[in-house]
Design a protein that fits this description.
alpha+beta; 257 residues; three-stranded antiparallel beta sheet; single chain
């Protein structure tokens, strides 16, 4: 049996288990790669027991090559999945059934400022609001839209979603959040710009438009004159500009743009 094990480390493990089975009078189990024909490798599971009466070993082996291949394929698949999740442009946290953070991707680490082992200690209670945490722990599901996250740099606005991967006992919860600080800053900048345009520029434009309209009405009888045509053209242009400012004001009021 020892000669069938090509790996020297595994061979020593087999020798140690043979000794343990003989000295301890117990059944030893171990996985061994063996090569019966010196070419192919079989993954096997062995149960070894020493018989003091017959003074020999009783060994039972199982071919677990297929199981080991499936385990390797699953490990490779999980590795690829973790690699993809780790590179996502959103923060991803995975909670175990006890509510402990078992996984945090790169973006989650960047947004929060905490390393994964620190996040495991901080937990979601140290990251999100009380109401959101209670709902995540109770239901495993949340779609709160805009929320807040407590990072090392302070509170950050985020879009927060959570869902249960395997509802019931042993539930695992997936939490996804997106830092919308820049988005909110852009929205605030747009609102300030529209407000400035409406207040500092829109008002004078409306005043000029009304004055030009009055002048145009006074010169209705003499629209063929050069000054009348200039006033009429200026009024049309100012009226178009006034409508533009009205549209911008409506966009600001409706929160569109």
């Amino acid at each position: 049996l020892i000669e069938l094990v090509p790996d020297l480390g595994k061979r020593q493990l087999l020798i140690d288990n043979l000794r343990k089975a003989r000295e301890g009078q117990q059944v030893c189990q171990l996985e061994l790669p063996i090569s019966p024909d010196k070419q192919n490798i079989l993954e096997t599971l062995w149960a070894i027991q020493w018989s003091p009466l017959q003074e020999n070993y009783f060994c039972v082996s199982y071919d677990i090559s297929e199981r080991k291949n499936l385990e390797r394929r699953l490990a490779s698949s999980n590795s690829r999945l973790n690699s993809v999740v780790n590179e996502l442009p959103v923060g991803v946290l995975i909670l175990n059934e006890k509510g402990r953070i078992d996984f945090a991707n790169k973006e989650a680490v960047r947004i929060t400022g905490w390393e994964p082992h620190h996040l495991a200690v901080v937990g979601i209670d140290g990251l999100f609001g009380v109401e959101e945490c209670q709902k995540i722990k109770r239901d495993g599901v949340i779609d709160s839209g805009e929320s807040w996250l407590a990072s090392i740099r302070g509170k950050l606005p985020v879009e927060l979603k959570a869902c249960s991967l395997n509802p019931g006992k042993g539930r695992t919860t997936l939490i996804i959040f997106l830092d919308i600080s820049e988005k909110k800053q852009q929205a605030e900048l747009k609102d300030r710009l529209l407000s400035t345009i409406s207040k500092d520029i829109g008002g004078p434009v409306r005043t000029v438009s009304h004055l030009l309209q009055a002048l145009s009405n006074q010169n209705k009888a003499g629209t063929s004159t050069k000054s009348g045509r200039v006033i009429e053209a200026a009024y049309r242009q100012s009226h178009r500009l006034e409508r533009l400012f009205n549209d911008l004001t409506m966009a600001r009021d409706f929160g569109g743009g």
